[in-house]
Specification:
This protein is an alpha/beta fold. Strands 1-4-5-6-7-11-12-13 form an 8-stranded parallel β-barrel, surrounded by 7 helices. The chain is about 30% helix and about 30% strand. It is globular and about 55 Å long. A hairpin with a 2-residue loop joins strand 2 (about 20-25) and strand 3 (about 30-35). It is built from 10 helices and 13 strands.
């Protein structure tokens, strides 16, 4: 049985030189949560299996990557680091890895230029090529009229999942399940899957979305959006068998430290590194 990973996520806004970590609800209502280096150090000491840094405004503002922040963080933090935001070309992957990151996550640029996945995976390896998918439910009355989309039954009715870009500011009309499969075929090594409907709500992960994507692909999937308690994280592991669970609010505001979550999951019988 593979070890399940617990991953704190730092949504970063580079409005100040050293960056700042923020957290919103459904990609809105953003509030300050701390500084990147300090929080990363805390999570490293607490035993996080990986840390994800997402520059949430880089793609929308057409800015470059947060290499300077990662260089500072990795001087003291030796947990695997994944960085997303502003990764638009293969050189960006290379530069972020040189800065100390282990992986790069791409969302907007990959959708606008899918060949980037092929090129990046060939240069830096699939293991360093993560695709972020920010998906939102779109309900339909008759799934038979939605032949080009994968509809899923939920307690609220049939829906499909719409991929967004530019930090959730624009929607593409692309089916998330189809896109995940294409990313895998192009060489992506992992999917970072965020439910926009659940993001920041702390009322549990989108099980239907997560299960549908995880069952469609063979590469690891990280569940994101809605984790509000150790019970929520246990539920997403048991009901979807994803490889990793990502959370932010419960860690940033000390509601449930990483070690508390890990000990809970370990007692529930999951294979967790503690």
């Amino acid at each position: 049985m593979l070890t399940k990973r617990i991953i704190p996520c730092l949504d970063c806004d580079l409005g100040v030189p050293q960056g700042r970590v923020v957290k919103g609800v459904e990609f809105k209502e953003v509030k300050y949560a701390g500084e990147p280096a300090e929080l990363a150090q805390k999570y490293y000491e607490d035993g996080a299996d990986e840390i994800v840094f997402l520059d949430i405004t880089a793609s929308y503002e057409r800015r470059g990557t947060m290499a300077n922040v990662i260089e500072k963080v990795t001087e003291e933090v030796f947990t695997p680091i994944c960085v997303g935001g502003g990764i638009r070309k293969v050189e960006d992957y290379i530069n972020m890895l040189k800065a100390g990151a282990d992986k790069c996550s791409t969302n907007t640029a990959a959708i606008l230029n899918p060949n980037l996945i092929n090129e990046a995976s060939q240069v830096v390896g699939s293991q360093a090529c993560v695709i972020g998918i920010d998906a939102k439910r779109r309900y339909v009355e008759n799934p038979k009229e939605n032949n080009d989309k994968n509809t899923v039954w939920t307690k609220n009715g049939f829906c499909w999942f719409d991929c967004s870009i530019y930090g959730g500011r624009e929607f593409t009309g692309m089916d998330a399940i189809n896109w995940a499969l294409e990313c895998q075929e192009r060489g992506a090594g992992e999917i970072l899957l965020t439910s926009m409907d659940k993001d920041g709500t702390k009322d549990g992960y989108d099980i239907e979305l997560t299960k549908a994507i995880n069952e469609a692909v063979d590469i690891p999937v990280i569940a994101s959006g809605g984790g509000g308690s150790p019970e929520d994280i246990y539920e997403v592991f048991k009901k979807t068998d994803v490889n990793a669970a990502l959370a932010a609010s419960i860690f940033h505001f000390n509601e449930y430290p990483v070690l508390v979550v890990k000990n809970y999951l370990n007692k529930k019988g999951l294979n967790i590194r503690v």
